[in-house]
Amino acid sequence: MKYPAILVEFTKSHDVGDLKKSMIGEQIVLGGWIEDLRKMGKMVFVTLRDASGRCQIIAKDQAGEDVSKMTRQSVIRVQGTIQETRARDFDFEIKANHIQLLTAAIHPLPVDPIGRVQSNIDTRLNHRALDMRNQRTSSIFHIRHVALQSIRSHLADRFTEITTPKIIGSASEGGANLFSLEYFGRTAYLAQSPQLYKEQMTMGLERVFEVSNFYRAENSHTGRHLTEFTSVDIEAAFMDYTDVMTTLESMICRVFKDISDLCTVPLANLAHELAVPSAPFEVITYQDALDELQEEGHDLSFGDDLQDAHLRIVGKNHPGFYFLTDWPMSLKPFYIMGRDDNPDISKSFDLQYGYLELSSGGTRLHDASTIRGRLIQQGLNPEQFADHLEVFGWGMPPHSGWGMGLDRLMTILTGTDNVREVVLYPRDTDRLLP
Q1: How far is CA 261 from the centre of its chain?
Q2: Strands 180-183 and 43-50: what pairing?
Q3: What pLDDT digit, counting tens, does each position of 366-414 carry?
Q4: What is d(CA 434, CA 240) in angstroms, rounded to the nearest whole number?
Q5: Does the structure show a pLDDT above 70 at 332?
Q6: Rounded to whole angstroms, what are the CA distances from 206 to 155, 196, 209, 247?
Q7: DSSP type of residue 38
Q8: What pTM was estimated for this model as a whole?
Q9: What is the Cα–Cα distance from 20 to 55, expressed in whole angstroms?
């Protein structure tokens, strides 16, 4: 037998996904995991899976080590020839000339990667690497990969990607829900957003974006909260909040279209039909939401925050994507600008998908004295923001931006209802391992 000369002991010539029926007669070398194995007389039928797909291997006991005694999910290397098949589930099969056991898997495994035996989410997360062999789980992360590529590609056309510090020396955005740590005799914090840094970067780079993990010590036990999460953030000089709303809207439409076009197999594995949204998204105001809640018997006053129960009611009236705008200034961070015609209303928005908040943004203040006043108004000490405020004396342009939770968007893209499903190793109030 003649195989490609470049191959060494553990390499393979092809991924399973590379193989085609037109390659019948070619000699190949594959590597992967035994998904299934059955013996019929002197023949052994092996279903081999790698990250790209699966195929059927036919071997005799003398094709190498004793194949029939290998355990499922063991790692093997197969040398063989592509040939015709009678199997209904495959277009071709591999006649093995040699099968080498690389690593044996224990039996039974703590999680069944095929899914014949169902495991709860905590058991799966405790054995996440093994869970990744499950076709449904791996499909989620193929979609996440494409979503990240799509986001970066869309934003990189007009924005510069940056990376901001995650260990910070002062409590940004007021210090709520921050993790603190000892840092060489001083107190440091894990950043909950890149907000102050990305605003500063508009001075020289004008339009910036970041895709990174951030941290929030929020004691929430829901399917949409994590203590470590991935955020997509932008900040843009010489744009107002309506401009960055359009940027967010177009990015969402682009991501959905790319997933729909490029992830047909992963979506099918998830049994999820993805509807690509169209622009423009619906826009309702905070006051509109109050009026709708009033009709449902909820007596809220202007300035009251909208709780989860309220947003579920509003979300039923507005399924899909919509912007919720014109929030009261009292509910927004110190850096948000008020409207010229009514300073009690902010130039801000949330992007909602039904009841689920995906993004929050707005036009920022760019005058240092006004920011100081807002800090004092919210009970914050301007001295703790001295380094940030100093930048505003160097010629800070008007700017706007937003931050979007990627993990929440992923639940929509994959049709799941728990952010822990779409994060490799999620961190929440109870989970610190593995």
Answers
A1: 18
A2: unpaired
A3: 999 999 999 999 999 999 899 999 999 999 999 999 999 999 999 999 9
A4: 43
A5: yes
A6: 13, 14, 10, 15
A7: E
A8: 0.93
A9: 11
Tokens describing residue 147? 């979503």
| Two tokens, residue 31 | 């590597």
Which pLDDT score is estimated for 1? 45
Residues in the chain: 434
Place of tokens 């995906």: 358
Contact 407, 226 (CB under 8 A): yes
Q: What mean pLDDT is reported for the chain? A: 94
Q: Which residues contact 129 (CB under 8 A, 6 or more apart)?
A: none
3-state secondary structure of 90: coil
100 contacts 76 by C-beta, under 8 angstroms: yes
Nearest to 147 by CA among 275, 279, 256, 268: 256
Contact (CB, 8 A) for 396 and 366: yes
Count how many Cα atoms sit within 13 Å of the Cα of residue 424 in the half-sphere of its side chain: 7
d(CA 64, CA 75): 14
User: Is the per-residue pLDDT at 61 higher than 80?
Assistant: no
Burial class (CB in 10 A: 0-12, 13-18, 19+), 78: buried
**Residue type for 372, please?**
R
Residue type at 279 in one-letter notation = A
Which segment of 65-69, 224-228, 262-266 scores lowest on mean pLDDT?
65-69
In tens, the pLDDT along 178-199 reads: 999 999 999 999 999 999 999 9
The set of long-range contacts for 16-24, using a CB threshold of 8 Å and a minimum separation of 24, is 16/48, 16/49, 16/50, 16/52, 16/53, 16/54, 16/55, 17/50, 17/52, 17/53, 18/52, 19/55, 19/82, 19/92, 21/91, 21/92, 23/82, 23/92, 24/82, 24/83, 24/84, 24/92
Helix (H/G/I), strand (E/B), else coil: 345: strand
Would you say residue 94 has pLDDT above 60?
Answer: yes
Strands 321-325, 282-285: parallel, antiparallel or unpaired by DSSP? parallel
